[in-house]
Write a structure and sequence with these properties.
The structure holds two protein chains of two kinds. Chain A has one helix and no strands. By secondary structure, chain A is mostly helical. Chain B has one domain: Up-down Bundle (Amino acid/polyamine transporter I), CATH 1.20.1740. The chains are: A mainly alpha, B mainly alpha.
Chain lengths: 34, 529
């Protein structure tokens, strides 16, 4: 795997994971508050 | 009759995510990235933020808004949003027609997964050594070979799969769909993680190591960024993977109450789908195939999802220790992805019968089951005649883009951006960045119009004129024409049903009875919940 490929993979995963964790944590927190 | 509701917020999120996560996440996406390299992710992520997420919010909002007026499907929802227009409800017919068309062939493909799962467990394809052998098995299974008993077995698995779908739908939104998605989605993720770990820990072979498998997917081909076709394919993939433009999310969101959040729920469902697609889907089939077959053969397999799913991956898994078990995991994973999608495809038609014709849940499910079981026979018995591809083109491509375009224009321009933005934020657990006002009003519609224009330019004429069929398989032309006539008839029947439903509403109102909608949108503009 080339360095450019690794960068694309890591950045893509990071974007998706940040979005997912943000929305999941927020959803679970709202559920707890309810 | 009390309106059905979701049991919990997590339940509806998992149901929408279940609808979105399908075969495309684990087969189509990795195939596309492998063809274009990591640079594919640039247009893909741009499309996710400018097209996918805005459309997700639009559909959740329209769905909840329409549900407030006791409408669970697009005709009624579109009518409540643009009451002065008598014809807009007929555009909404696409939101019932499209899911039925996809359901007709999707359920059959889903049944193959169940059959192959059993085959994997019993080691039934252990004598197959090459992709060619697996291809022959798949042909025989689909009735395109010379082993009728295998086709009969396939039909039996189809009946079981169809019955399972109907059984889930019979138990309704909370007792059926929500309950199934609440256990199916965690199991699906667990199986996917197990398979990812197994693939990423595989030892190197003569073809390379896992790094070369991941490199085959992610190493960028820079020319992809300047190709309009790649941008179009990336936008198309976002469209299809999120299940937007079908009508399913509208129906699911209609079972929310007015105070339920849609902004965060829509975002959570979309991001859950993306994890399944980009992180899990991208790390299973292609890296494993490269290890066992090499780059060249994997490249050929990546062009067809049937090849990747039913021919390449079973062979790869068979070569591993505990191959039968991993094969079973693979097909159960895909089957769960399939069934959580197919039940969502059925719901708009069932909800339409319940809402607009006052049928009970049981009767609506029964009518749907009888009609679609008959229609499914075309995709089973004429699969070799191009019927399945034709249904996919109209139901799974054309209708999606057309319906998505109508929705976004209706939401941002007819309903009005100020009203739409307020409606989106009612009960919201997050504040959406204001830049999305601009994106939803200008960028998403422009993106969709461009997508539709390019799609029409690229595919319309050759497809409608059957250029490929005429050249390669002229004997299929009557079947393709027959399928089109059938689709037109189906659309016409649903359109007539909409006409009858609205005529009945009108006559009830003029007869002096309680006006069907007088307590809500027609007069007060206040939803019922």
């Amino acid at each position: 795997m080339k360095m450019s490929g690794l960068i694309f993979m890591v950045v893509s995963w990071a974007v998706i994971l940040v979005l997912f964790l943000y929305s999941l944590v927020k959803t679970l927190r709202e559920k707890e508050e309810e | 009759m009390a309106r059905e509701r979701w049991g919990s917020k997590l339940g509806v999120i998992l149901a929408v995510a279940g609808s979105a996560i399908g075969l495309g996440n684990f087969l189509r996406f990795p195939g596309l990235v492998a063809q274009h390299g990591g640079a594919f992710m640039v247009p893909y992520l741009v499309a996710l933020f400018l097209l996918g997420i805005p459309l997700m919010w639009i559909e959740w909002t329209i769905g909840r808004f329409g549900g407030g007026f006791e409408h669970s499907t697009a005709p009624g929802m579109f009518h409540t949003m643009w009451q002065k227009n008598r014809f807009i409800k007929y555009f909404g017919v696409i939101g019932i027609f499209g899911p039925i068309v996809i359901f007709i062939y999707y359920t059959y493909v889903e049944s193959w997964l169940l059959g192959y799962g059993v085959f994997a467990l019993l080691g039934k394809y252990s004598q197959c050594v090459t992709r060619g052998d697996m291809g022959k098995l798949l042909d025989n299974y689909r009735g395109l070979g010379d082993t009728p008993w295998l086709f009969a077995l396939a039909y039996l698995f189809f009946v079981v799969t169809f019955f399972l779908n109907i059984l889930i739908l019979y138990f309704g939104i909370k007792g059926g769909i929500e309950t199934v998605c609440k256990w199916a989605m965690p199991v699906l993720f667990l199986l996917a993680v197990v398979l990812v770990v197994r693939v990423l820990t595989l030892p190197a072979t003569e073809h390379g190591d896992v790094g070369s498998g991941l490199g085959f997917i992610w190493n960028p081909k820079w020319s992809a960024l300047t190709s309009a076709k790649v941008w179009f394919e990336a936008a198309g993939q976002i469209f299809f993977t999120l299940s937007v433009g079908i009508g399913v999310i509208l129906t699911y969101a209609s079972y929310l109450t007015k105070k339920d959040d849609v902004a965060l729920s829509g975002l959570t469902a979309a991001s859950t789908n993306e994890v399944a697609e980009v992180i899990l889907g991208g790390s299973i089939v292609i890296p494993a195939a490269v290890l066992f077959f090499g780059v060249k053969e994997t490249g050929q397999a990546a062009e067809s999802i049937f090849d990747l799913g039913f021919m390449t991956m079973p062979l790869v898994l068979k070569k591993m220790t505990l191959g039968n078990l991993f094969g079973l995991f693979w097909f159960i994973l895909l089957f769960l992805a399939g069934i959580t999608s197919s039940i969502s495809l059925a719901q708009p038609a069932i909800a339409f019968l319940e809402d607009e014709f006052n049928l009970s849940k049981k009767k609506a499910v029964l009518v749907f089951a009888i009609v679609t079981f008959v229609l499914c026979q075309a995709s089973i018995f004429f699969i070799g005649r191009g019927v399945l591809g034709e249904l996919d083109f109209w139901g799974g491509n054309f209708c999606l883009i057309l319906f998505g375009t109508v929705e976004v224009i209706l939401f941002a321009w007819v309903f009005g951006m100020d009203r739409a933005w307020t409606e989106l934020h009612v009960g919201s657990d997050i504040t959406i960045p204001r830049i999305y006002r601009f994106i939803i009003k200008y960028i998403t519609p422009a993106f969709l119009l461009f997508l539709m224009g390019f799609w029409l330019y690229d595919q319309w004429t050759p497809k409608v004129c059957m250029e490929e069929v005429r050249t390669k398989k002229p004997e299929n032309v009557p079947y393709i024409v027959g399928t089109r006539i059938g689709l037109i008839l189906l659309f016409a029947v649903i359109a007539v049903m909409v006409w009858i439903a609205w005529k009945r509403r009108g006559s009830r109102r003029t007869a002096g009875g309680a006006p069907v909608e007088s307590s809500n949108q027609e007069e007060s503009q206040e939803p019922t919940s």
